[in-house]
Amino acid sequence: MSSPGVRMGGVICPILTPFNHDRSFCAELYVQHAHWLLDEGIHYISPFGTTGEALSLSVAERMKAVETLIDDGIDPGVLMPGAGLCNLPESLELVRHAMDAGCAAVMMLPPFYIKPVSDEGLYTYFASLVEAAGGSRLKICLYHIPPMATTGFSPGLTERLAMDFPGVVIAYKDSSGDWENTLSIRGVAPDISVFPGSERFLRRGLENGCAGCISATCNINPAGIREAYDAMVSHDMSGDLDRIENRMLSIRKSVEVYAPIPVMKGVLSRQYNDDRWANVRSPLMPAPDQDVAALIRTRADFA
Q1: pTM of the predicted model, to two decimals?
Q2: In terms of DSSP H, where are the helices of the chain?
Q3: How is the chain split into domains, by residue range?
Q4: pLDDT tens digits, residue range 56-93?
Q5: Which class is 10-221 in CATH?
Q6: Which residues contact 148 (CB under 8 A, 6 or more apart)?
Q7: pLDDT tens profile 143-178
Q8: Measured between alpha carbons, how far is 8 from 3 in angstroms, rounded to an integer?
Q9: Please, are residues 217 and 255 in contact by the beta-carbon 8 Å criterion?
Q10: Residue 45 CB neighbours (<10 A)
C-alpha cells in the first residue's frame, strides 16, 4: 500500500476487463481475477489501463468497476485506476472518484487526441487538474505510451511536473519501449517511481533505480513475474536468477506474437473454465482458438 513518504514499487497488473456475452461488464469474473492476482503476489492492480480496454468503457462503468472491487474486499490502497481521458471534466470525475475511494493513485494518460500539442499545453492541463482536484490524497502516475497515444510525457515535462507537484506526481509508467527514455526519466525525476511497461526491462530497470514494472502479462503470469522481481531485488543468485528471468521473458515473447488482449482473455477463459472471459469489445475481436491453445502450451512449458 502506498502511504505518505513511501514510494510506490513492485509488480503492478493492468487488469483485463471481463464482459458478459452481451458485452456488459462482468463483475463476478472481475473480482475473481483480482483476488487471484493478489494471491499470486501482485503488489498493485491498475484497472483500466490499455490492457483493460479502458477507452471502450464509459466513465460510469469504470467507476462502478472500481467500486465492485472494493465492495468485494479488495483494499483500495492496492488500486491505481486509469483516469486519463481527452477532456478535463471527465478525467477529473474519475480522479475524484478514485481519491474518494481511497485508491493508492491514478494512472493518467495525457489528453491525446488534439495534435500538435506542446509541453506547455500539457503542463497547463495537468496543473488545472491538480488545482481542481485539490487535497493531499491526490497521487498521479504519468502514463507514457506514445505507440498508442502519440502524445507523451517528455523528460522535460516530467521533470517540471515532478518538481512543481511533489507528492502528487509520484510515478511514471514508460510504455514507449525505449530504454533510453526510461533512463532519462530516472535522471530528471529521481524522486518519483519509474516503472517500465514490460518485464523485458524489469532487471535492467531495478539495476538502475526503477521501481518494478507494470505489465499486461501479469494477467497470465503473476507468480512468475513476482518471483523474478523478488530474486532481482534480493540479489539472490542461489535461485538461478537467469533461469527465472528467461522463463518469465519466454512467456512475454509468446504473448507478443498475438493480439495481446484477446489472446490473454482466451487463456483466462480456459483457466477459469468460463467462456465469458473470451469476450472483448469492438473493435477488438476474440482470439482464434489455435492461438489461445498455443499460448496455453507455452505457459505450461515454462510453469
Answers
A1: 0.95
A2: 27-39, 59-71, 88-101, 119-133, 146-149, 155-164, 179-188, 202-207, 222-234, 241-256, 260-271, 289-301
A3: 10-221
A4: 999 999 999 999 999 999 999 999 999 999 999 999 99
A5: alpha beta
A6: 50, 175
A7: 999 999 999 999 999 999 999 999 999 999 999 999
A8: 8
A9: yes
A10: 25
